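Final report, closing paragraph on structural work. Over the funding period we assembled a curated collection of sequence-structure pairs, and we close with a single example.
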Amino acid sequence: MREVEVYFLINDRRTETILTFVNQMLSSPKSISEEFSFPLYDDIPEKVFDSLRDLLDFLETRENAMYSLYWEDEKGVDPRQVMAFYTEDGKVILGIVVDETKGFTWLEKLSKTFPIQFGLVTVESALPDQSSDFVDLCRNGNTPRIVDGRFFK
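Its predicted structure, as stored:
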């Protein structure tokens, strides 16, 4: 079964916002990472956190900190995975992984829960570090997307 990713941009780095999204999307969420260090993938991290919550609290206050977090659903149902990509300009790109036939349906569903101005459905795309570049991806895309709050198929 092929999968797609559904992403959307938010202006909110609060821990509670991220955790609420994860818990709303996954029936049985489990962080894919077991270690939480900052910066991500550094051989000698600046900080090592005792818990995911501590890391999220840190990222909430560090507006320019980039980071990628992944959760999976232990039951393997859609959405199968949730992602949070902290951008270097203070935003977060949230995403889910779903069956390829349900990408647009999930984008619509998410827009009813979150005030999405920019979002898109894609397949294994590298996301940009800046929210403005994500907005450009949405504006110039040819997949189902939301631009300025309007749907395009």
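The two ends are 22 Å apart (CA to CA). The first strand starts at residue 3 and ends at 10. We thank the funder for supporting this effort.
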